[in-house]
Amino acid sequence: MMHAPLPRLETRRYGEGLARHRHAFHQVVLPRAGEMQIEIGGREGLLGRQHAAFIPAGAVHSFEARGAQDFLILDLPRDPAQTRGAGALDRLAQTLFFPLTPALDQLIAYAQGFRDLRLPDPAAWVALLIATAAPGTPQAPSGALARAQAHIEAHLGTPLTVARIARAAGISERGLHRLFRAGLGTTPHAYLARRRAARALDLLDRSTLSIAEIAHLAGYADQSALTRALKRQLGVTPGAYRRDRARR
């Protein structure tokens, strides 16, 4: 068995197929072009421009690729202590297949904008990708955590506090912290920061709004606050991100 690697990101083109095998690290398979029929632990799915997959460490899997294809592959250590958002990894391990949302597309495109995928802060990118891929709770879609997440999504452009989110979810602030730790492997504040960053990247990519307007819509106090947040989380400024996207 291989030793679990540190987080590693690479592009890959698969051959016709692969016999059933397993590896000692988690793997996220993000399609960029083409399709792949894959079986993970006895569950089958079709990966393409609509769906991606999470292969848990130790899970037996096999695949059959179709025609020309291109995938972004993220290898993650098995030890949750080495990966931010371990709770979200547990959620992905239960789901296995998840939709490729516009927010995930933007994170993938951001990574591919760097030569050899050498991101300024890969750990932050991995954490944001995992949180974006597994934001919900299938076990309790109408529960307090789902209510908290829905309130955050609906009010990203407003001054949100943990107290306000807890009230919307119908639980105490302490209960909210426990819920986010158990369900998503993060804190309400960190989750909110990631969702705001994802909203800002979405607007930078899809709109012609000024950076100041985008900062306001994503819930930042001003353009400087947005710039600091993106630099801290992804190592890029809003202006640089938009210029990189325009060149692609």
TrEMBL record:
Domain spans labelled HTH araC/xylS-type: 146-244
Organism name: Allgaiera indica
Entry keywords, A to Z: DNA-binding, Transcription, Transcription regulation
UniProt keyword Cell inner membrane present: no
Gene3D superfamilies: Homeodomain-like, Jelly Rolls
Pfam family, one: AraC_binding
Gene Ontology molecular function, alphabetical: DNA-binding transcription factor activity; sequence-specific DNA binding
InterPro entries: AraC-bd, AraC_XylS_family_regulators, Homeodomain-like_sf, HTH_AraC, RmlC-like_jellyroll, RmlC_Cupin_sf
Name of the protein this chain belongs to: AraC family transcriptional regulator
